[in-house]
Amino acid sequence: MMPLDPTGLMALSIPTRNVAYADRDSLLYALAAGMGAGGEAADLPFVWERGQGEQSQRVLPSMATMLAFDDSWLEAGKIALPQVVHGALDLRFFHPLAPSGAALAETAIIGLDDKGAGRGGLVFTETLLRQDGAVAASVLSTMFVRGAGGFGGAVGQGVTAAGVPETAPDAQSRVATALNQALFFRLLGDRNPLHVDPRLAREVGFERPILHGACTFAIACAEVLRRFCGHDPARLTRFAARFAGPLYPGETLAFSFWRVAGGIAFRAAAAERAAPVLDNGFAGLAADA
What we know:
There is one protein chain. Helices cover 18% and strands 33% of the residues. By secondary structure, the chain is α+β, with helices and mostly antiparallel strands. Strands 1, 2, 3, 4, 5, 6, 7, 8, 9, 10 and 11 form an 11-stranded antiparallel sheet that branches. A hairpin with a 2-residue loop joins strand 4 (121-131) and strand 5 (134-145). The termini are far apart.
């Protein structure tokens, strides 16, 4: 892998997209995030379109990542898709996403960071999602490109991660994942073969295909909604985390939560390996949450 091209990437213009989606897409996203897997009745509004008002379908807020997802510019940016993994995501929510409709996605590369020659390069993108003329959510994404460092140092805007307390957690929980979870999640748009091809996974250093970072992120968002938001998407104002390591489909996510100013800090690990998966997690909660 060649080092990132900072001049070309920072000058790259990513076309604005109008992303249309149906209620089926919102339902599939929630299912791929494990909503309904435990048989909880409170999960049903996310996986069942059942009427209007309080009984209407709800959307898992992290679905903003699906609407913002766009890898069509990677070739122009001289980035090879198999070398790409998610580094971090930071979402801010201004009003709940509609169960179906369209979102205008405006994406720009805002900065790069250099981890050194032969190591990784980071690409920071920001996407604004507009619905009905207003910004519904913003998605700040950190892309880690394996072996693409050594291009001369940081460029443009950087990203600051939230901290997590070094004290005993206030709450803990565990969420099992399914062996075929990545196969469902890839149908939402991210067809990176790293998540399905055993040979490719081994070639880039994994024992087998890994779960999409965005899927792990969605699982965490669902768990926060269950435990701290009463399943109400409107109570979540921000959701962010850094991807600290891979999760293999079929493993169990072990969450630790801390109550902090403005919301909830969290971490998650693969329970079977005691290996970090998510770190620097933060869920911003509305004042009444």
